[in-house]
Amino acid sequence: MKLAPFGRSTRVSRDVPVDRLTPDDDLFVKMDVVLDLPVVTQTLWRFPGTIDVDAIASVAERLRRGRLGRLVGSHRGPGRAYWRYTHDAGDFAIDTEPLPAGGEEAWGRARALDPLDIVNGPAWRLSVARTVDDASVVVSLTIAHVIADGGAGTSAIVEAVNATPYLPGTTPGIADDVFDAVDLLRTAGTTAYRVWRESRGGSPESPARVTDNPAPDTDLTGAEATPNATVLIPHADYAAAATSRGGTDNSLFAALMVGILKRCGRVSDGDVVPVSLPVSTRTDGDRRANATSGATAFVEVAPGRYEDLTDVRVACKEAYGRLAEKSSAVANSAVILQAVNDSIARRLAANASTPLCLASNLGPMPDEFVTLGTGTRATMAIRAVTVTEDVTQLRDRKGGISGWLGINGDHVMLSVSSLDPVRIPDASAMRGLLTDELAAWGLHGTGWGA
């Protein structure tokens, strides 16, 4: 049974592991606890008509006993936190009041902001509501990113639908904690030395070249935290738009994201935009909460991309080739940050920025994920929300946009969120930019909540 990739595999017996947080998990803990910018992933299902809600309740109960049934446990002294397994880690609720017709998106947004607690619970919430005209049943699953990334969340749902048993990890003992603390400090020290040695040789210059367009002097009153727009596009149309220009689903996705940045004024013609392409490192039997690496494609803002996607496709291919060469700076920093206390981490992260452009391609969605155990396929919306009441924090982190692409039967789900409250302050602005960019490719999408 494979555990976290950093540190040693600590076990109390051959069968019961001690599951410890990886550096990736800890990075999201620090986003939550140190920076007060918790990241929440949200999956929304929209089922037509009426469905068997009892089936969803059964899935929720199995989620409690599966890989999502865990909270962050800690101990005194240095060392990695561990996963404390408990059935109280999640919450399931059915709204008694029906939604007004057309109220699905507003309800989903409200559910995204319901509080989560990675230490005391609930760290995830599964909520169900129906519309007043019985036209649809909507479901929201919010998960603290600390607890699960997109891959872990999908695995948890598939396992729950299939009633696949999951072996909870055990609580570490004192000796195990001491051993782990030594290992953590050794690993962090080795990584810090390697980073220092590599820096002496000089870092290769990044191809990224982004015009520093000054941000407009905008009053942020009324700006939303990570507003989102999700559209459903016929897969045949999307694939044709890509292949007719010498591209792929993924390269068209990257080009769309760069186009939105151009439309909102964040980048200019001739800029070379670093597009972050998350890559899952999850394997069979993987127990990690977060198992994602990141490739970076350097995509030029070239007017000709609307006629020819070859350069974008090559940039994405080269990004995946570089991924295997060496650990990224972010990965190395996460290893080091896991060994320091919150006070030091706060100082180290003071000037940290969020990605300018993140494009996460989820690929085809598993049937169990789409049906949620009901036997009926739903239309889906997937997004991440950085939860904060102070959008100036997002502005100061200099983020741009983040997007998710997934294939659900005969249509593509495209979801884009803004991390720039100055240039894209609300869902209406986000939706307008997305609609206009799709039109430039000859594409049209219907809203998830429509």
Automatic annotation (TrEMBL):
This is Diacylglycerol O-acyltransferase. Residues 197-223 are annotated as: Disordered.
